[in-house]
Amino acid sequence: MVTVRAPATSANLGSGFDVFGLALERPADVVRVERADETTIEVTGVGRQYIPENPAKNTAGVVAEELDAPAHIEINKGVRPSSGLGSSAASAAAAAVALNELYDRGLTPTELVRVAAEGEAAVSGEAHADNVAPAILGGFTIVTDEDVTQVDASIPVVACLPEIVVSTRDARQVVPQSVEIDELVSTVGDAATLTAGMFRNDPELVGKGLRNNSLTGARESLIKGFDAVRESALSAGATGVAVSGAGPSVLAVCREGGQSSVASAMLDAFFDAGVEARAYPTSVGSGAAIL
């Protein structure tokens, strides 16, 4: 039997649509696997009623199929489904690391990213790796068709999750298919600034690069109270704010020691908008780990 903890993640980060991702210290999923003749899934924890236990429709079950590693898989969800915090990626990442260990497949962490991405396809319809990469590798990740680059970073952040449901499929539908050249240039500049900030562990630079553009900013309208939440976070000391992944979570980058005041401001703003929310004062953290 092998047990693995895999963290929540935040993808896109404003300027890095389908490319950037980062691991959060919390919340996280815990997945336990043991050998079996055929794969079965058992789900407990937050939002378990929304997660299929059919292995063919569950991210962890698809990973087991990809690795030819049948197992009884117990998933204890700490990351709410449809949260914008990589819920399906956390399960897929934990299962990939656990099954690789259980069956001694010998795959590297980077190779496991591609395996876990196939699990993501069971939910989103496409094998995106922007969430599973940080869930496995930790830190800040840059994903392209050919490569995965990982940067160890320790940036204070707050992830604020409102009680709103935004599905990944719906969120992708509002994204425009093209942008003007001026906006493209601005987005490239923001992405470069954010990347430099991650290498330097500089929340000021990361915040400047976190600005939403028309690609990720189109999702703001799906989150009730977003504008007020962003302004409240910035007023409380956040250096930058963006939609986390497909939403509805909102990610704020903070200065050291500033998470508590930023979290309170975001919660108050959602409350004023008539939306219940939960905040996770945390930081960019490590990836999946065997317990």
From TrEMBL:
NCBIfam families: PRK01212.1-4 (NF002288), thrB (TIGR00191). GO terms for molecular function: ATP binding; homoserine kinase activity. It is found in: Cytoplasm. It comes from Haladaptatus litoreus. InterPro entries: GHMP_kinase_C_dom, GHMP_kinase_C_sf, GHMP_kinase_N_dom, Homoserine_kinase, Ribosomal_Su5_D2-typ_SF, Ribsml_uS5_D2-typ_fold_subgr. This is Homoserine kinase. It is an enzyme of class 2 (transferase). Keywords: Amino-acid biosynthesis, ATP-binding, Cytoplasm, Kinase, Nucleotide-binding, Threonine biosynthesis, Transferase. Its main location: cytoplasm. Residues 198-270 form the GHMP kinase C-terminal domain. Catalyzes the ATP-dependent phosphorylation of L-homoserine to L-homoserine phosphate. Pathway: Amino-acid biosynthesis; L-threonine biosynthesis; L-threonine from L-aspartate: step 4/5. Its EC number is 2.7.1.39. It holds the Pfam family GHMP_kinases_N. PANTHER family: HOMOSERINE KINASE, HOMOSERINE/4-DIPHOSPHOCYTIDYL-2-C-METHYL-D-ERYTHRITOL KINASE. ATP binds at R80, P81, S82, S83, G84, L85, G86, S87, S88, A89, A90. SUPFAM superfamilies: GHMP Kinase, C-terminal domain, Ribosomal protein S5 domain 2-like. One of its GO terms (biological process) is threonine biosynthetic process. Residues 56-139 form the GHMP kinase N-terminal domain. It catalyses: L-homoserine + ATP = O-phospho-L-homoserine + ADP + H(+).
